[in-house]
C-alpha cells in the first residue's frame, strides 16, 4: 500500500529499469508528448482516470496507485540542482536571465511568460560539428493586471 | 574612470533609459543576435575590439570602458532569481528538470547539453488565445569522457 | 541623476515623509487602486507615461526619473521578510498553504491562482471586539496545459 | 500505534485517496469551515474531543489517533514553498508585502494583522474571461503596546 | 538630509557616544520604559509627534528626522544574532523553546503569547553568588480562532 | 532497545498522550520545576539516577532508557523555529535584542547573561483585558575576563 | 531488490570492505582508469553492459543491479564538502579560482575548461621532503559561442 | 590612501586593463610562477618587500600599497562560485571528490593533500580534437597524527 | 551486518551506555590519548588492525565492524553546532579568530597551523573560584609555498 | 568623525600598516595580553578609559574614537570563516567537537566551558620536525542549573 504520493516515481523508475521501457513508449501509451508524460511519471503532473490506470498497469504498481496518480502532486523538486546536466539549464538562466527579462519586456511590456500554460519540446538537431540538443519552449504571455 | 567591470552594465542601462535605445538597435550595431548582444551589455560576454568601441560610443561610456568591455567578465548573476519573470524560468526547471534529464539521456546517453556552445532565440508567437513567448535553445551535446 | 532604478523608491519615500503625503492621495493622482499605486511607487510595477510624469512631479524627483519609472523593474523583494507585519503574512501561508493547495485543486483541478492577473483590496472591517484588517485577493485560475 | 503526531496527516491523506472523500464533506462532519478543517487535517490545528473522534472514525485511524489529534501540533510547515501553487502565494507577498505594510500602517498605525485571530475563505469567482480564485482573509488588528 | 529611516539609529548611537547620554535618561525624556524607549531609538518602534521632537532635539538630529521617526520602521533585525550576549537569548529558546510551547499549551490551550501586546522589564537582581540579570516578559495570550 | 538518545523524547511524548499525564505531574514526580522537568523530558537536560528511574517508570520506557537519560544530551534543537508560538519568542529577540544588549551593558558593563546558570518561570497572569503569559528569566551576569 | 540507484554505492562499499578489494583491482576489471572506475562505483558515471555485469559480479550485488548501473545517475554529490581531504580541494579553488580564471582566459579567451570532456590522474610523487599527491587534470577548452 | 587591503586587487585589475599588461609579464617581474603571481595580485598571497615594491611600481599604486601588500591577506574568496569557468572546477570536485578521497587514502592512508605546501601549473595542451586546458597540482601528503 | 560506516558510532555509544564504560578506559585499551581515542570512536579517525579488533570486542560490535573501523571515515561533522558546549568553542573563534590570525602571522609569517599534524589535551584545572577546563592544542606551522 | 564603531578596526589596521607597529607593542602599551589586546583592537572587546585613550593616540585615531572604544561592541564576526588559517580552527571543532563534548561531560558533568570567563595564550613551540603553534585556552566550567 502506498503511504505517500512521492513514493510512486521511485516505483515507476524501478519498474522502468526492470522492464527496459522507454519514455517514448510510455508517452505513446498515455497519448501525450514525451515531455509531459515523463514529467507526469516523475511526479510533476496529475493524470486523468484513464492515464492513471494505464500507468498503473504498465508499471505494475500497487492497487491504490491509480487513485494517487489522479491527485495533484507537490511539484517542483530541486534536489537535482547540482547534477551537471540540470545545472547547465540553471546556468543558462544565471547567464541569460537578465537578457531574457529585458527582451521579453521590450517585446511584450510588463508581464511574464507563463510556466503553467506552457509546453516544451526536446529534439536531437543533427550537426556535422556534433549533434545538438534543441529545446523549444512556448508559454503564454501574461501581462500584469492594472487596477 | 571605471573601477570595476561590473559598473558598466549600470552605465549602459542608465544611458539606454536616457537615450531611449532598444536592444534590437544595439544588437544591429553590434552585428550579433539580440540575445547575445543584450547578455553582453548586461555584463555576461566579452566583446571584441570593434564591438567594445561601438558600445562605448553608443552609450557614451567613459574613456576606459572599451578596454574593460574586452575583458572576460565574472558571469552568472543570480540576483534576479525572485523576479517573477525570471522565477518562472527557474520553475520550469524545477518542474521539468528531471524529465529533461531523462529524455536527453534517453536520446544521447550520458552527457550534457553545453551551456557554452549554446545559442538562444526569443520570439513572439501569435496565438488567438493570447500571444506566446517562444524560446528556442540549442546546445551541443557533450558526452562524458571515458578513460 | 539616477544611476539605478532601485534608487527611486527611496527618493519617493523620503519625499513622502517630507511632504506628508498619503498613499490614498497618490493613488488618486495615478487613477489606480491604492494597492497597485503603492506597489508601483515601491518599485514593483511599471508606470505608463502619464503616471510616470505624475509621480515624478508629485515627489519632485530628478529629471530622468520619469523615464526610469516607465521601465519594468526587478520585482519581488524579500528584505522585509522578518518584519512582524510582513512575517504574519508569510506565516499564514506556512500554516494554511497546504490547505489552500488542497482546496483550490479540489475546486479547480491541477493549476494555480495567477499572481500576475491578480488584484488585491485591503480594508478596515469594523468589529466591536476590535477592528480587523480585511484582505481580498482574486487571481485568475490557470490550468496546467496538457500536450 | 502512532509514534509522532506528524504521521497523522499522511494517514489522513492516504485514507482520503482510498475512500474518495472531499474536504467539504470532512468540513461538514467537523462543523467547521473547509479552510479550518483542511488545515486541521493537515496537522496545523488542535481538535476538540468530538472532532478528534469524528476524524479518527472518518479516516479509520489507529486507536490512539484521537488522543494525538487533541494535542497542539508543531505548526507552520514550509516544505511546499517551491510548489507552483504555493509559490504564487509567497510571490504575492514578495511583490506586495511592502505595499501591504504601508497601507495597513496608514490605516491603523503601528501594529500587525493577527495570524491567530484570523480566518480565511476561498471561493470560485465566475468570470467570463476565466474564473478566478477569490481569497478573503480577515485578521484582528493588534496595535504595538507602548509602556 | 536623511535618505532612509535606518540611518537614524546610527545617528542616535553616535550622538549618544558623543554626549555621554544614558538610555535611562532618554527613557525619562520620552516618558516610556527604558525597554520600549531603547528599542524605539534603535529603530524598532514608531514615535508619536512629541516623542519624535524630543528625540530629534536630544540627539541634535537633522531637521527631517522627527518626521521620519513618526513613520513605522521596518522592524526585526537579526544582524546581531552571533553577538555573544544576544546569542545566549536565542540559545535559551533553542534549549527551552519546546518546553515553553508545551507548558503554554498545557495552561492555555492552542494559541500563542503575543509579541505585539507585549512588554518587557530588565533589572539587576542582587545575589551573593553573583548578581543576576532578571528579565520579565508578559504577552497577551491569543487563542487560535476556530471558524 | 534504544539506539540513540534522541528517540526518548518521542517515546515520552507518545506515552504522555496515551496516559494523559500533565507536565506538572511529571515535574512533581521529579521534584523539579515544571520548566526544567519539561525541558529534560524533551531531551535538553541530563537526569540524575533517581530522576532517570522515575521517568523511565512513569512513561514505561524500555529497560535501557534510564541509563540513556543520565547521559548529557545533544541540546538546542531549532526544528520548531517556524512554529507560531516559538517564532514569537524569536521575534521578541529580533525586535528587542539590540535594546536588551544596550540595557544589560549599561547596567553591568561588558559581559553576558548566562544561559547555563539560568532559570525560567512561566505563569498565567490574570488580566481583565485577556489573560497574559508571564515569563520570568534570571541568569547570572558573567563579565568578560580581561587578562 | 534495489529501489533507488543511490543504494548501489553503499552496497559496493560494504562489499569492498567485506572482500578487501582495492580500487585498482576494480579498475583493471573494468578496463578503465582507477579515477573513472572509482567515480563510477560511487555513483557518478553510467556503465556499459559489460562493465555493469562485471561490477555486479565482483561485488555480488542483487540481480537487478546491473540494469540500474547502466542508467545515468544523479551526479555531483556535495555531502563530503566538510571532510578535511575534500575541503582542501575546494579551498584550492577558493584561493586560486580567480587566478585560474584569469590565466585560462589570458591563454584561450572567453570560455571554459570542460568538466565533461575531462580526465584526471592521481599519483604519488616521491619527494625527500615528504611524498606529494600529484593530480593532473585535462579538459577540453570550450569557447563561448557568438551568434 | 588605501583603507583596506582588499581594495588593492581592484586597483591592480584596473591598472592592468589600462596598461594592457599580461599576467605572464607580471609573473616575470615578480620572479614567480604565473599561478602564484596572479593569485598574489588578486589578494591571496603575501608579498616580500621587493615584490611588493615591484607590484606597486608596475601598477602605479598609491604610496602605502607596498606596505599593505606585505601583510597576510584574508584569503579564500568564493564570490566567483557561480561563474561558469570557476563552477566547472567546483563541479569536478562534486563529481570526483569521493573518488579522489578513496584513491588518496588507498595510496597514502589517512591524511590529506596539503593546500598550503602546494603548487599548480596551468598549460595549453595541443590536441587535434580541440586544445585542452591541463592543470597539474601537487601538494604534500600530510598523515593524520596519532597520539 | 553494517551497511555504512557511520552506523558504528551509534553502536559504540549505545554499548558504552549499556556497559557503563568511560572514555579513559577505552583510550587505555587503545593505547592512545583520550582525545584521539574518543574522536576515533565517534567516527573521525581510522584505526589500525589491533585497535579495530580491540574496539570491536570492547563494544561487542557486529563481525564486520573491525574491517569498517580500519577504513578512513568521512570526517568533520557539524551536526552539533548548536549544542551549547560545542557552540562556545565556535564562538571563541568568532570572537578571537581575527586576533589568532594576526598573532600567528606576526610570529610565523604567511601560513597556517595544521589541523592534521595536530594534537589536543583537555584537563581539569583546579581553581578556587571554580575549576576550569584547560585545552591545549598544538599544530605544526605550515608556511605557504612560493613557486 | 566616526559614524559607527565598526569603522575603528579598519582605521587601526591601516595605521598599524602605515606605522609598522606590532601587536606585542600594542599589548604592552595596553598592559594586557597580546591575545586580549589584539581582539580588542579588532573590535571584540570594550576598553577602559585609559586604554581607549592609549589606543586612540597610538593609532592617531579621530577625536571621538576614544569614546567609541569604551562602548561594548557587536562581537563575533564570522566573515573570516573561509580564510585557510581560520578555517583550520573551525575544522578542529568539526573533527573533535563531539569528542570534546564527551570528555568535558565525563570529567565535569552537564555544563559548558565558558567563552566569557575565558583566556587564551598563543606561543611558538620549537620542534626539530618543524615548529608548532601552541594554543592554550582555559575557561571556567559552568554547570547547568537545576531548579
UniProtKB/TrEMBL annotation, chains A, B, C, D, E, F, G, H, I, J:
Q: Which domain of life is it from?
A: Bacteria
Family matches, as SUPFAM superfamilies: Cyanase C-terminal domain, lambda repressor-like DNA-binding domains
**Which of UniProt's keywords are assigned here?**
Lyase
Task: Provide the Cyanate lyase C-terminal domain boundaries.
Answer: 75-147
Query: Is the keyword Coiled coil in the record?
Result: no
Which residues does the Swiss-Prot or TrEMBL record annotate as the active site? Answer: 88, 91, 114
Lyase: is it a keyword of this entry? yes
Q: Which NCBIfam families match?
A: cynS, PRK02866.1
Q: Its function?
A: Catalyzes the reaction of cyanate with bicarbonate to produce ammonia and carbon dioxide.
Name by which UniProt lists this protein: Cyanate hydratase
**Per the UniProt entry, what species is this protein from, by scientific name?**
Alcanivorax dieselolei (strain DSM 16502 / CGMCC 1.3690 / MCCC 1A00001 / B-5)
